[in-house]
Amino acid sequence: MRAVGLTTFGGPDVLRLLDLPEPVPGPGEVRIRVQAAAVTPSDTLIRAGLLAHRLADEGVEPPYIPGWDAAGVVDAVGPGGDGRLSVGDAVVAFVRPIHPCKGSYADLIVRPAASVVRAPSGSAHEASTLIVNGVTAHLALGLLALEPGQTLGVTGAAGAFGGFVVQLAAHRGLVVVADAAPGDVELVRRLGAHHVVARGPAVSGAMRAVAPDGVDGLVDAALQNELVLGAVVDEGRVVSSRGWTGPAPRGIEVRPVSATPSSEDTALLTSLVDLADAGVLSLRVADVLPLVSAAAAHRRLEAGGVRGRLVLDLA
């Protein structure tokens, strides 16, 4: 089968088209014929070697195959399944490239059945953008534990992850103060932000102008770290999407968020599909490229300015 991966860490050009053996599903697993795989910042971290320690800890050997999200069709079901999934079902999956099963840049992948749920309506390209960012956004809001009517700050609100945070927060009755570059203001408003402030190093002051006492919690999808702390109330909380933990003044608590522990939370994955079908979560595809153009997709993502997700087509 075809796959795109790497044997040496480095820039986008280390990605190569590979011919690998077809995986076989074991007990409690399903095999998916992948139609679309979203390209995420975490894919570029794997390729660059910034997650090499985690690959080694999990016993993953090269070639390394990136890709955390997949949409496709169930191709085979291993023994011992619960009957929830059948051959031919259109599905989405939480894929774990930092695992011996490897990532979604491949014609066929094997995943635990618990990580696989029915696909939302629409195209496979759209469906492939949902799961990992949706899980991360849900968990980030859970860590903040805000009540309806409280104020949430969001940086990086126009991005795929930040956009989901805005939409879920608005749906849950939070007052959302989000940042945006000038060209993204209308997009962020459409996503559900109640107040939009200028993106950049002065974001804390801009959010304080809207919420003088400070926002009750903040999700830092733009990775601004200490620059966002001034926006938050004393003893408030900040969730970082890339592992930053502070230090922080005024009793502010900084918590990192990781979607991986919820990769087999079937109920959560199903709820995200339901929210997408209800129009609460927008599945935004920036562009679709063939699998063989994975390196070009990585270059575009790292150049910045992508709104929505770049998606690799494997159909």
What general outline do the C-alpha atoms trace?
globular
Number of helices: 9
What characterizes the major β-sheet? Answer: 7 strands, mixed
The CATH architecture designation of the largest domain is: Alpha-Beta Complex
- Indicate the mean pLDDT: 96
List keywords for this structure.
2 domains; Quinone Oxidoreductase, Chain A, domain 1; alpha/beta; seven-stranded mixed beta sheet; oxidoreductase; single chain; Rossmann fold; 315 residues; ADH-like_N; EC 1.-.-.-
Please provide a written account of the structure.
This protein is α/β, with parallel strands linked by helices. The chain folds into two domains: 2-130 and 283-313, Quinone Oxidoreductase, Chain A, domain 1 (Alpha-Beta Complex); 133-256, Rossmann fold. It has nine helices and 15 strands. The protein has helices at residues 41-48, 52-57, 124-127, 131-144, 160-171, 185-191, 203-210, 266-277, 294-303; strands spanning 2-5, 16-19, 29-39, 69-77, 90-94, 108-112, 116-118, 151-155, 175-180, 195-198, 215-220, 232-240, 253-256, 285-290, 309-313. Strands 3, 4, 5, 6, 7, 14 and 15 form a seven-stranded mixed sheet that branches. Helix 9 links the parallel strand 14 and strand 15. Helix 4 crosses helix 5 (160-171). The longest helix has 14 residues, at 131-144. It is globular. The two termini are 13 Å apart. InterPro entries: ADH-like_N (IPR013154), ER (IPR020843), GroES-like_sf (IPR011032), NAD(P)-bd_dom_sf (IPR036291), Zinc-ADH_QOR/CCCR (IPR051603). Keywords: NADP, Oxidoreductase. It is an enzyme of class 1 (oxidoreductase). GO terms for molecular function: oxidoreductase activity. This is NADP-dependent oxidoreductase.
